[in-house]
Amino acid sequence: xxxxxxxxxxxxxxxxxxxxxxxxxxxxxxxxxxxxxxxxxxxxxxxxxxxxxxxxxxxxxxxxxxxxxxxxxxxxxxxxxxxxxxxxxxxxxxxxxxxxxxxxxxxxxxxxxxxxxxxxxxxxxxxxxxxxxxxxxxxxxxxxxxxxxxxxxxxxxxxxxxxxxxxxxxxxxxxxxxxxxxxxxxxxxxxxxxxxxxxxxxxxxxxxxxxxxxxxxxxxxxxxxxxxxxxxxxxxxxxxxxxxxxxxxxxxxxxxxxxxxxxxxxxxxxxxxxxxxxxxxxxxxxxxxxxxxxxxxxxxxxxxxxxxxxxxxxxxxxxxxxxxxxxxxxxxxxxxxxxxxxxxxxxxxxxxxxxxxxxxxxxxxxxxxxxxxxxxxxxxxxxxxxxxxxxxxxxxx
Length: 397
Ligand SMILES: C[S@@+](CC[C@H](N)C(=O)[O-])C[C@H]1O[C@@H](n2cnc3c(N)ncnc32)[C@H](O)[C@@H]1O
Known about the structure:
There is one protein chain. Strands 2-3-1-4-8-7-5-6 form an 8-stranded mixed beta sheet. The chain contains 11 helices and 15 strands. The C terminus is likely disordered. It is α/β, with parallel strands linked by helices. It has 2 domains: 152 residues, VC0802-like; 182 residues, Rossmann fold (3-Layer(aba) Sandwich). Bound molecules: S-adenosylmethionine (SAM). The site of S-adenosylmethionine (SAM) has 20 residues, from α6. S-adenosylmethionine binds next to α6.
């Protein structure tokens, strides 16, 4: 098994477009050898780093610890390579495991079949060595094994997270199409909101952005409420170290100054607000987050300055005219009422985004599930845009 002070190569998986935000989070954690990859970031650390990464990283989906890489171009080479790992270090005859395959290779066509081959290699080895075999459990395995095949490069990793880390344990109810929590946290971190000014989601749905914003403003570890992490069932689990890491995280929490920071959500739908309220209360933020039941064009901005971050409906259930009208009215309201704010809007409807009628300063490609989206920043300014741009350059100099 991995030793507690062993130097490990660790991989944090994330969503497309959030790699650089994750790099910044890892830099803030003080880890070394950080290398951004495609939808992942590699770094070095110890088991303590693995525990902390699971608890603290807002934009990580999984924390993997690779234990072997090898080349394979057919099922026999795959079987032999997997059999070279000393599986009794990680499993015994009473334990159960699951293999999650991700296969992108011309040599292996069926990911289920490759997982089956890998499973056979593990089971055969342990039956030979220990006289009996561990079982497979899809629901509640003791060990999550990640099998990644890219062309002929096979990487076998221990998955220290288990269920993806966006499952923070505050979502009691989703409603329709809630944002993935990792995407929501990534959107806020991309906006560079510092947790010290107002944060508004005027189309808040189930409240994901509001809760992630409250956690950022309170310096709360995103997974502090979560009880299940795969590493807790590893043979070498260091409970004392984990409790220390949890306690340090609790000590690091801060109560934001409610006079300077208002976190407010609103939605046109009362049933969505009920869902948001339940999730907010589960997350422990009923005092910090307030909710309103207003359409965006009737929402009066709170005094002070800040940021709006939201994903309006993309239009799947609306007629083209309605969606154009909605995005036009979003732009009109922003220009008319939100002069001390900047807006960040995520949408997969690129035509509708044009109806906002403001020129975005930043456009970032992200995916909401399978939907390709643009995440756009609209600074809101009085007078002509040219004056604003000049002023902005002045302030930066
Ligand atoms: C795509 S959902 C937002 C999902 C949310 N980010 C979440 O994580 O659950 C869009 C939301 O906008 C709300 N909405 C639509 N038109 C609105 C309007 N004019 N004013 C306020 N809310 C509106 C809908 O009720 C819906 O909850």
